[in-house]
């Protein structure tokens, strides 16, 4: 790893170590976002503060977009996209699928991304055009390739759900159509970790209504560099309306299953 990726990986590791060291037995929410169950903890904010401080120290002219702190302007072509804890509810409950996600844009294009799935000791990393790797302490780097040649009927599909009741009602309706047509469904609770699961072949595909840019910026690059296709409906880029990810072939099958269900609606 060099340049942006090396810096992002070092910061993501440091943030992860801080979160593990400071996490109480049961973290408490300090505020909410879209609903009473969509929570923020003090450590979400502490993690983003740490990440922003390290970016400022190394590259003071760069912009930063963070889930908790919004956007800070920069002086050049580079912007960092930060989710300090993706999977905050998992973090609160002590479940293993939460992560620190950091992506780097140059002129609006994501060129590097890391996702540190902290409880699992797994750091996923990718550079544009350079492939994707899984890094684990004491082990050689593992080159990532998504599963290919899997038909929809035998595909293990990850998904997630929003926090507002009206959105969940539609997502349940969509899921009822999808579930009989795939091998099975998995719900991990972190968009970034789910995209890395596609990249590593732990699931075959992923779809979800609702993830924001900071949720999928780094994980999307990692999945793409592992051979997956990522996007939205009808040729649009991935977006909060709907994000899909799978190997070519399965991507199109999953898209064509979802599109008639109007999965971007909330009621």
UniProtKB/TrEMBL annotation:
Keywords of this entry: Hydrolase, Magnesium, Metal-binding
GO molecular function list: histidinol-phosphatase activity; inositol monophosphate 1-phosphatase activity; metal ion binding
GO biological process: inositol metabolic process; phosphatidylinositol phosphate biosynthetic process; signal transduction
InterPro entries per UniProt: IMPase, Inositol_monoP_metal-BS, Inositol_monophosphatase-like, Inositol_monophosphatase_CS
Cofactor: Mg(2+)
Reaction catalysis annotation: a myo-inositol phosphate + H2O = myo-inositol + phosphate; L-histidinol phosphate + H2O = L-histidinol + phosphate
EC numbers: 3.1.3.25
Residues involved in Mg(2+) binding: 67, 83, 85-86, 215
Cross-referenced SUPFAM superfamilies: Carbohydrate phosphatase (SSF56655)
Pfam families registered for this protein in UniProt: Inositol_P (PF00459)
Pathway: Amino-acid biosynthesis; L-histidine biosynthesis; L-histidine from 5-phospho-alpha-D-ribose 1-diphosphate: step 8/9
Family: Belongs to the inositol monophosphatase superfamily.
Free-text function comment from the UniProt entry: Catalyzes the dephosphorylation of histidinol-phosphate to histidinol, the direct precursor of histidine.
Protein name: Inositol-1-monophosphatase
Organism for this UniProt entry: Sphaerisporangium krabiense
